[in-house]
Design a protein that fits this description.
This protein has one helix and ten strands; from the N terminus they run H-E-E-E-E-E-E-E-E-E-E. With about 160 residues, the protein is of the alpha+beta class. It has one domain: Sandwich (Immunoglobulin-like). Strands 1-9-5-4 form a four-stranded mixed β-sheet, with no helix packed on it. Strands 2, 7, 8 and 10 form a four-stranded antiparallel β-sheet that branches.
């Protein structure tokens, strides 16, 4: 009986890993000068209550008093023949920021500077990997958002 339970458990662990490997066949390797990031989200009981925020940027040495951001955008592409979505940042645009006066002798600090604009939020889906391609010197981070169970009524106006 013990061997049977072990066999079943190994099968249950191996099946998701093999499905993830099959899903990755749809996503090409990164082109020269690019890096492919892959995120496999954990399964949730009600995935419609979750969203995923992709955060793209890089760590740079800057003054601590100003706010900065990079130009650029995340593009969505559908992979032909598969219907899967991949995300691409072809290049980071120039870095821009506020122009507050700072002490020129103040030490620079390392900060992760992101793409400007609204947060890039996509549907949560644990069944497929989230694949994003970025230039080699760029990093990808993420944040998982979740909705609370409580809803509130709006008064008629």
């Amino acid at each position: 009986m013990n061997t049977w339970v072990t066999t079943v458990l190994m099968f249950l662990v191996a099946v998701p890993a093999s499905l993830a490997a099959d899903n990755m066949k749809a996503f090409p390797t990164a082109e020269k000068g690019m890096v492919r990031y892959v995120l496999q989200l954990p399964q949730q009981a009600d995935e419609s209550a979750f969203r995923l925020e992709l955060i793209v940027g890089k760590t740079v040495q800057i003054d601590a008093g100003n706010r900065y951001f990079f130009g650029g955008r995340i593009e969505e592409e559908t992979i032909e023949g598969w219907g899967y979505t991949r995300y691409i940042v072809r290049q980071l645009g120039p870095m821009a920021g506020t122009l507050m006066a700072v002490d020129p002798n103040a030490p620079k600090v390392a900060r992760f500077i992101t793409l400007g604009g609204d947060p890039y939020i996509i549907r949560y889906n644990s069944r497929l990997p989230v694949v994003i391609y970025v230039p080699e010197d760029v990093s990808v981070r993420y944040r998982i958002w979740s909705a609370g169970a409580e809803t509130k009524a709006i008064e008629k106006g």
